[in-house]
Amino acid sequence: MKRIFMMMMVAALVAMMSLAASAGTISGKVAGVSGESVVYVEAAAGKTFPAPTQEPVIDQKGLVFQPHITVVQQGTTVQFLNSDSVAHNVFWPSVGGNKKLTHNLGTWPKGEKRPFKFDNPGAVPLLCNVHPEMSGYVVVSPTPYFARTDKSGEYKIENVPDGSYTVTAWHEGAKNQSKPVAVAGDTKADFTLSK
Amino acid sequence: MDTRHRVFQILAFVVTVIVLTGSGYAIPAFSRQYGTSCTTCHIDFPKLNDFGKAFKDAGFKFPKDDETFIKIPPVMLGSPAQKELWPHTVFPGTIPGIPQIGLRFNQFFQYTGSSANKYNAAPQGGLGSLQSPLIPNTDFEPGFFSIFMAGNFGSDIAFWVDDDLSVAGLNANGALGDGYLRFVNVGRFFKLPTDSFTVRVGQFELDLPFTQARSINISPYDIYSQANFGASNQNVNNVIELADAGHGIEFSGGHQYGGYHYSVAVVDQNTSGQTASAPNVASPTGGSFGGVGFFSDSNYKDIYLNFSYRFNLEQDPASRHDIQAAGATGPRDHTYLSLGAFYYEGRSDQRFSGLTSGGAAAVISAREPFYRVGGDFSFNYRTFNLFGLYMYGHDNDLLLNSTFTGFLPGAAATFNGGFLEADYLVLPWVMTIMRWDRVQSTADFLNQAGSANYFSPVGTTRNRYTPGVQFLIHPNIKASFEYQYRPQQTVFYNANGQAVNPFRTNTATGALEFVY
Questions:
Q1: What is the spatial distance between Cα B184 and Cα B199, in angstroms, rounded to a whole number?
Q2: Which residues of B touch A (CB under 8 A)?
Q3: Closest C-alpha among B366, B386, B367 to residue B376
Q4: pTM, two decimal places
Q5: Which one, B250, B468, B490, B515, has least CB within 10 Å?
Q6: Chain B partners within 8 Å of A133 (Cβ)
Q7: Burial class of residue B316 in the structure, from the number of CB atoms within 10 Å of its CB (0-12 exposed, 13-18 middle, 19+ buried)
Q8: Which of A83, A130, A134, A195 to mutate to test the interface with B (most CBs of B within 10 A)?
């Protein structure tokens, strides 16, 4: 009898633990702006995430950064490709508004790539100093929990462990908006951004 | 409040506008077509950077893979497959997907030294006669409203047409600037090296070492505006100025951004400044076409030669030979030294009423050979550009003999001069300029006629110093300021030929210009 009780207690504990670790989703809408936005979960104390091994590529083609917006997890290495037969350079004046993190990747020939590891979170505006119309963004999320909105502003971040987080919405040219979100299963979080 | 305070307030206002204005992009013809900023090709427009020079060399297109950069596709004037049917079909080409039109307007504000009125210090006519109007200390002036069209028709055929629709607010003052077709790299048909042979036909500014028509300066280079009129004891009346547009054909090759560059132009000659419109022979623009008749005033064609070699000084060979140098922080103009020489020659044709050796009335012609020869250099380091040009002008003189049957050689009429200019781009939107112009002409001094800019030079040498600063409010909007410290001039000379109360009429000019 005592043995059965012990087994039931262990089963209940396991069930409770698995419930606490269950993953939910954060979904909602980013309003006030048109076009693609990015929503990501800010870092939570005590939680670290391994850097992804995949290295996304941002191309410079036809005097355009392609894609225009790239979202990566902090610690990701991005490959910058030059597919143009003219010289470019890639630089950014700040990372997440921090001008001390400005960096210039220099110039490299057509067909070659140059890597850069983004260790600091925040939006990185990509510029080219010889073609000032060129514009692109790398949005560095501190966590692997991020999503891009569709054209209507809807987004969904999946597999977010239940818990309390700060969630930030970013849109090109708009002010960031952050809000606390308690994730428990499917959770809603809407944003209204302004320029 | 004195005038200096007022001028200062105006300048302060303009600077404030500049500082408070946000970023933007120029959208003239090429900006629209390629979706790129003016600064892709220009440093402080219209001055070209190395990429802009390559773009121009290539016939107003990207030197490589042009089609991948065009945002507005061209309209095909026939399927590309039609090329295989030629000569049994019209060779297909393209026209730009949108009209390649750009417009420019500028306006000026000028402060003129009070000595400007000294030229009419002596009253004209009898007592009570109405005198010339006052030259104001300050003046607002509308400038040039110009239209320019340029692009490429495919098959490496480039075109350019620009016209001043109005000048100083008066439509009648406008005129065609350049208008030409340029057949780029036709040497490929003769298996010549790439870009070694290009042909341009039409009206164009000569391939001057430093352009006058597309200069960033408000005031023109004096030596480019120098005609050659001999002194009173000479028979030299040559109105040709180096800045004049040429009508003709030009062969050229090489690149402006490195290595050799040459051009040979054969252009109409008109040393009298007068055009003919004979009733018995209509020119293509004359007769029933309502044109103005011929342009040349002689059978001779002038020849203009220009050769330069530019040494790009980067150590890395790949960077040295590329269109732009690869700097640590991105592409930039090369560090270079360019050396060049140019030569222009013709024969000034002057027709006189004279006699044959038999005493019969006849028209006799003096054909006076003349030439202009000079050299130039340009040194560039990062955003600092120092360049200069020296030119010597020489016109043979033929004087009517005493029997009016022919001519005797006289002393040649000569002049020389040039300019030295330093441009320094302090910031991508702030250009500072220092310039020195010099013209030495004994005949001008003796004639007491300098040019449109001067009333009457005191000496045979005219020096002008012109500091300036320019601000790009946007890539397509510019505010320019220039101060001209002008040569001494005078109204009176004493019995010994010495100038009495010589003076300088210095001017400060501000310009606002935009292109779109």
A1: 6
A2: 23, 25, 34-37, 39-40, 51, 62-65, 68-69, 71, 318, 322-324, 326-332, 475
A3: B386
A4: 0.87
A5: B490
A6: 25, 35-37
A7: exposed
A8: A130
How far, in Å, CA of B511 to CA of B106, rounded?
Answer: 7
Please report, in tens digits, the pLDDT of each residue of chain A (195 residues total): 566 656 655 555 444 444 445 789 999 999 999 999 999 999 988 888 999 999 999 999 999 999 999 999 999 999 999 999 998 889 999 999 999 999 999 888 899 999 999 999 999 999 998 899 999 999 999 999 999 999 999 999 999 999 999 999 999 999 999 999 999 989 999 999 998
Element (H, E) at B238: strand B237-238
Residue A55 phi/psi, 5-degree rounding, is -120, 100
B330 and A106: CB-CB below 8 Å? yes
Report DSSP state, residue B242: T
Nearest to residue B66, comparing CAs of A68, B187, B74? B74
How far apart (Å, rounded) are the C-alpha atoms in residues B45 and B64? 23
For residue B310, the surrounding DSSP H or E stretch is strand B301-312
Using DSSP's 3-state secondary structure scheme, residue A162 falls into coil
- Convert the pLDDT of each residue in B412-426 to its tens digit: 999 999 999 999 999
In a domain, B9, yes or no: no
CATH number of the A51-142 domain: 2.60.40.420
B328 interaction partners in chain A (CB closer than 8 Å): 104, 106
The answer to whether ipTM exceeds 0.85 is no
Non-local (6+) Cβ contacts of B397 within 8 A are: B230, B234, B235, B236, B368, B409, B410, B411, B412, B413
To probe the interface with A, which of B25, B32, B37, B61 has the most A CB atoms within 10 Å?
B37
What domain range includes position B215? 26-120+132-515
Give start-end residues of each CATH 2.60.40.420 domain in chain A.
Answer: 51-142
Q: Residue type for B226, please?
A: Q
Give dist(CA B365, CA B406) in Å, integer: 8
Q: Where along chain A do the CATH 2.60.40.1120 domains lie? A: 23-44+147-195
- What top-level class would CATH report for the domain A23-44+147-195? mainly beta
